[in-house]
Amino acid sequence: MTRILNISSCPNPSDVDCSGVLVITPHRAAASALGKAYYSLPRLARGVLKEARGLELATDIMARHTLKGVLAKTIKNADPGSMAVRLKTIMQTVLRTGIDVDALIERGSPRVLELGLITKAYKAELLKDNLIDRAELLWAAAHCEPELRFLFIYGHHRARKEEIVFINAIAGEGSTFYLPCHGDGIFTGNREWAERLVTFGWQTADNTADSPQTTGQTLAANFTSPTKSPSGSDAIAYPNIESEVRGTLSRIKKMVVDGTDPYEIAIVCRDQEATHR
Fold first, then answer.
1. 149 pairs with which residues across the strands?
2. Which phi and psi (to 5°) does residue 111 adopt?
3. pTM, whole model, 2 decimals?
4. Most buried of 40, 43, 77, 227 (most Cβ within 10 A)?
5. Which residues, 6 or more positions from 89, have their beta carbon under 8 angstroms from its beta carbon?
6. Phi and psi of 175, rounded to 5°?
7. What is the dihedral of CA 52, 53, 57, 58, to 10 degrees?
């Protein structure tokens, strides 16, 4: 039995039998669409790290306190608080993507060398308490030889490097991973990852429907189509969130006035908190 990499541009796994397999999704909505309980890659990775190396995730407070302590010891006359804020994002990128810290120290410019030294010391301090930074979770779990699992992975349509690496490390025979690989430019990264996964033994499958059935599939097909095709959906760009909210409410009001049942109208937003504000 092989590992299946489904590269369909409009994946629709709702009819797939997921019994007897651990379903992995990035959020609860994807899990709900499959009729399964929510279980994420980070949750799986935490279990792997705990079992294999006895490690836990550092809390945000602990991580910040540790980084400030490292900075105070490493950089003379530095303001640990403000420097920690400046370094946080780039250091988390180093940890998240598995950049070789020793290589930064050996071959980097003075500033890169400094980053490498700080990151290495930060990791060492956390390990004293059997902790790792949250950003390092997937990468660390992927490199502790995890026990292979029978997985069904859906919803990571723009998967990051560390997600791909962890999935490849833990997915056992019979597992299925959905990674859309349309010819459009936005899927270039996915196509490159698909090619690499094939070299690791994954077998590609493409069951893209000839005519998409759901609204989301229709929009996706129209968006990636090289030629203009008829569509009943409009795409409108707004300069800011306030204009978007007002414009959306105005269109909804017109729909209701024209006879649309309010209970048939749904509003989908990327950031619910920002929209509420």
1. 171
2. -70, -40
3. 0.75
4. 40
5. none
6. -70, 155
7. 180
